[in-house]
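Record 1 of the preview.
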Amino acid sequence: MINKSLTVIFFIAFFYAMSPICFAQETVKDTIKTASETPFRKGRWLTGLTGFIGSGSTENTITHNKSISNRYRIEINTGKFVRDRINIGLSANMERSNFEEKNVAESTSETFFIGPKGTYYASNSEIGSIFFSLSPGYALYRDQVGAIIENVYTENTNKGGGFGFLFTFGFAYVIHDRVSFDLGLNYNVYWLDLNQENSINDKTDNVSFEVSNLSFSFGFKILLDSKPL
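->
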């Protein structure tokens, strides 16, 4: 009787002793599984470089007029995931475009933009996700437009700044939970207050206008853990 009682007590003690270990193992497995569902998980940092570049030329074979255009944008951004798939950070970009029509006109514009940036990744997939991002901020703008009018070269210069925002819709493809390759469609718009100068009469005017454009971008970003897993 005593032996039976000791046996029962032994099995009960063994069960209670092993239960925490089993539950702990299951918890660790669940944590690893949950963490691996998305590379865009809470606590990680995302830092990278994106941009675009474009160039083209046209020629009128009748008038022999030729035009050349070049445009590029470089963006640097960094941010932290405050929740799974929600990243809050800072973004800065520079954009430059140039257009030249031989012996007729030329124009150059430059924009520098900086502001906070929020990004939402829609999917839990390990390989990547569609994302949406919005960045409001301040823009510095400058352009020069030169043209030959009645055999006289005239140049107008606009410079100043204002408020704007950049919206991006794209897809991020992730390799080994560490590197994200992004492809996006960007729409940016700026409302600017500028000082306009003319090379002929040295007159300065204050003008306000809106600048917007649509573009594709590509780039890569690095995913970093704030502490070792």
